[in-house]
Structure prediction request, 265 residues.
Amino acid sequence: MRARRGQRVPVVVQGRGRRRTGARVLWVAAETVVTCGVLVLLLVVHQLWWTNQEALAEARDQVRVLERQWEAPAPVPGAVPGGPSPSVPRPEPGRPTGAGTAPEPAPAGSPDTARPGSAGAFAVLRIPRLGLAVPVAHGVSKRSVLDRGFVGHYPGTAAPGRTGNFALAGHRNTHGEPFRYVNRLVKGDEIAVRTRDATYTYRVDRILPRTAPRDVGVIRAVPRSLVQPSYGYTAPGAYLTLTTCTPEFSSAYRLVVWAKLVSTG
Prediction:
């Protein structure tokens, strides 16, 4: 059929709407990918930098708190600040002094006698080669100890300076990473553990570069690897054990450093 003169014939163009819709989809997808990338980057920054700053600040503050407490004179039981000194009661006639009146104090340097700070820390670990000064707290809980930048004392292991194995754990990466560079320690390096009662100096003796996380033999009273029996000891002594993850940014294995007590001051 022919169109009449002066009458317009409509022309239908197909495909433009589809092209616009496809472009919008691609644009939204690209924005989503960029947003996800930014979020992942922020998460990495938070884990690798911000958690370190928070944990380092708390750990350093706790070291200062502990050392201020230790340097202050011990309070006298019953004493009132600014008041007279309490009188010392005289023993009753016929009653033996000290016998059955109070339990015997725990051995000096044991965790029971340590006066923890606000976060439960009871000692300060110093490693001069690494420039490290970090608080030591009871337990190896990530949330309450390790993730706060502290070093954790394995439950059931010896107290500092005592016969047995004073075993510690710390993060290699993130959350203060106190044991980031323990792989740089060599035989003969000194490690100091200070409590309210004394400072115990250990000397690095042996290093186990890699073992399985399940290798509980490394923290026993006489430490010896169950995975690699050639590493460890056969005789009792006063040992210090440092454990951390290896390689860096992985928890596949454990790095172990053993030291022996050389002096108490």
